[in-house]
Amino acid sequence: MYPDARIGISYGVPTYWAKSGRVGLAYWSGGVSFYPFGGDYLDEFRAEHPTIKTSKGTINFKVSEKVPVMALKKIIRQSIEHPHHPVKP
């Protein structure tokens, strides 16, 4: 989606920066956590996918869960194109 994204660490999480936004992705023993760095991006996701665990600013995918790719792409676009906490390029 963003081939020019830079990779680094933010808050101890592997993070991809593009434009003025960012998203993070971390692995844990049971799956993957996705960090859009903006909690209200997740409201629609929570409503559409109530069985997938979320917290204030994280989506936790278990290994056994199917990842809703289109919904995840939408959150990535929102996080990169309209960040709540813009970062300097």
Automatic annotation (TrEMBL):
YdhG-like domain mapped to chain residues: 3-80
This protein's name: YdhG-like domain-containing protein
Organism placement in taxonomy: Bacteria, Bacillati, Chloroflexota, environmental samples
